[in-house]
Amino acid sequence: MTGTRSWPLLASWQVPFVVDFPDPPPATDLASFPSRSLQMGRSIFRLHHRELGPFWFSSTDAATPGGNRFDLVSPNGASYWALQPVVALLETLARRPVQTIPAELIDRFALTETALPHALEPVANLPVKAARRFGLTAEIHTTDDRIRTRGWAQALFGAGFRAVVALPRHDVTGRHRTLTLWGERGEHQPYGWKWPVTTGPVGSVIHDLEAWGVRVLPIPFEVPTITPPASPN
Hints:
Blueprint (H helix, E strand, L loop, with lengths): L7 H6 L21 E4 L4 E7 L6 E2 L18 E7 L2 H9 L6 E3 H4 L2 E7 L4 E6 L20 H13 L4 E4 L11 E7 L1 E2 L9 E4 L4 H4 L6 E3 L16
Parallel strand pairs: 5-12, 7-8
Antiparallel strand pairs: 1-7, 2-6, 3-10, 4-9, 6-11, 8-9
């Protein structure tokens, strides 16, 4: 048998796309979106500039191309945390495929750890199989289409979720998690809770970056020099 065979279904899979997950459904359709609870006492972490407090909630207008991944529209906002301290460093300092970070840059930051004063629920849980039923793919954790990711954040917040757990964009293992808290825009401790906060230097956590191929080294102030050989006559 000769000739070519057409596979229209396969051809449809090969249509170019920009983002492979849809805009969110109405908030009323997200009541059954997968959720989880974070227990009271669970530690969360944030890396931030030393002169700033950790509980900043940022907002971005719906039509703005930039902004943070899960920002809400004012008067609400989002505060970005991690469930593991090394993730706070990865997401803040290793946003590009860098292999060396100046120690002087680390000195500009502080690492805050706080424990949840109460159980946090409901928390939208993005990295689970059940999220696929709503059309989500892993691209929501990595795409630069922030208008779409913020649309999902706004819809989930409208459905009653207080926070969202997601994959860190710069974690190639897929084993770690970020936590984005939602609340009123600005600097404040959310939910009316009293949060026990410990803030200090980054400390030994910087050594955990070595397993990710990232080293922290001081900027050399003295560089050895040599006299070049004389040019031949």
